[in-house]
UniProtKB/TrEMBL annotation:
UniProt xrefs under Pfam families: LacI, Peripla_BP_1
NAD in keyword set: no
Biological classification of the source: Bacteria, Pseudomonadati, Pseudomonadota, Gammaproteobacteria, Enterobacterales
Gene Ontology molecular functions: DNA-binding transcription factor activity; transcription cis-regulatory region binding
Keyword GTP-binding: no
Protein name as annotated: LacI family transcriptional regulator
Length: 333
């Protein structure tokens, strides 16, 4: 066709070049519902290549009831943990022929609501979701009839699939490791306490201290954002008074900010302040010193989440994954 690039090529154009009906072209593109002779199928494929025809996915979605897309909503994509998780989910979805649409809530609950609404209007086939403060918009999702898999520790909700690690236990295990070094003065950098995951991590820290017969000291609880800046600010406050000998930071970014602030004061981990963090990623391995960290099995979690999503209307399932305590030099090992 001489001018096919000047307008959108249609199936009628392909049928004309192939010498078949539009219906036959549709059967070849959709691999059914009726069989097509091999010679005819090859003619249609050749015509598709010649014309440069590209199927209209929107029209196909309207006809099939599937957009071949999943939505993913995370609190903050600048956090390497969520970036790593998104990449693993995208790869797993792609392996199943799906496209992943990403929504970054920017740690804002109202923005999270708007993102979910937007993805539902686009008729995604399913929603993967980590809530900003673990008060998910379940009513909105249920009303749409869209399958959903939560990637978080959530309150028990009938009919909701979820994958998670036990964050309270993970925080407790990390703090126990600091105690095993002989440290008894142990602080915590915690996220905003309006967020339920911050409460879980704080409670895990307390559990370990109380188990060891140590009274948690309120002045060593530093509530700051889950960011490098948050960790930096907490450390600036920490060095002004009697400081703990070790700190559990509630995420990797806080630990990296802490290392930066320590260096400004001529202090080092673990010599002056031992560190262990939650939600370690590859960045933990390449910090100076390398960070001891609780790591979640992201690849396995992504595989299970997409498998749950593919099951669609299957009964709700909750799967809890074991975390790993990755020990490096920052804690004194």
């Amino acid at each position: 066709m001489d001018n096919h690039s000047a307008r959108r090529v249609t199936r009628a154009d392909v049928a004309r070049v192939a010498g078949t009906s539009v219906a036959v072209v549709s059967y070849v593109i959709n691999n059914g519902p009726r069989p097509v002779a091999e010679a005819t199928r090859l003619r249609v494929l050749a015509a598709i290549e010649q014309t440069g025809y590209r199927p209209n996915d929107i029209a196909r979605a309207l006809a099939s009831g599937s957009t071949q897309t999943y939505g993913l909503v995370v609190p903050d994509i600048s956090n390497p943990f969520f970036a790593t998780l998104a990449r693993a989910l995208q790869q797993e979805a792609f392996s199943r022929g799906r496209v992943l649409l990403l929504g970054d809530a920017g740690d804002d609950r109202q923005r999270e609501y708007e993102l979910i609404n937007n993805l539902l209007r686009r008729q995604v086939d399913g929603l993967l979701y980590t809530s900003v403060d673990r008060h998910p918009w379940f009513d909105l999702i249920r009303a749409s009839g869209t399958p959903c898999v939560m990637i978080d520790t959530i309150d028990s909700q009938a009919g909701v699939c979820a994958i998670r690690v036990d964050e309270r236990d993970a925080a407790c295990q990390a703090t126990r490791h600091l105690l095993q070094h002989g440290y008894r003065d142990i602080g915590i950098f915690i996220g905003p306490l309006t967020m339920l995951n911050a409460q879980d991590r704080l409670n895990g820290w307390r559990d370990a201290l109380l188990e060891a017969g140590i009274a948690p000291r309120d002045e060593w609880i530093f509530e700051v954002p889950y960011t490098r800046q948050g960790g930096y600010q907490a450390t600036q406050r920490l060095v002004q008074g009697p400081r703990p000998r070790a700190v559990f930071t509630s995420n990797e970014q806080q630990a990296l900010g802490c290392l930066s602030a320590l260096a400004e004061h001529g202090l080092r981990a673990p010599d002056d302040l031992a560190l262990i963090c939650f939600n370690g990623t590859q960045q933990s391995e390449f910090s100076v010193p390398p960070l001891s960290a609780v790591e979640q099995p992201i690849d396995a979690m992504a595989k299970r989440a997409i498998a749950m999503m593919a099951a669609g209307a299957a009964p709700a399932e909750l799967h809890e994954f074991a975390f790993q305590l990755r020990i490096r030099r920052s804690c004194g090992c």
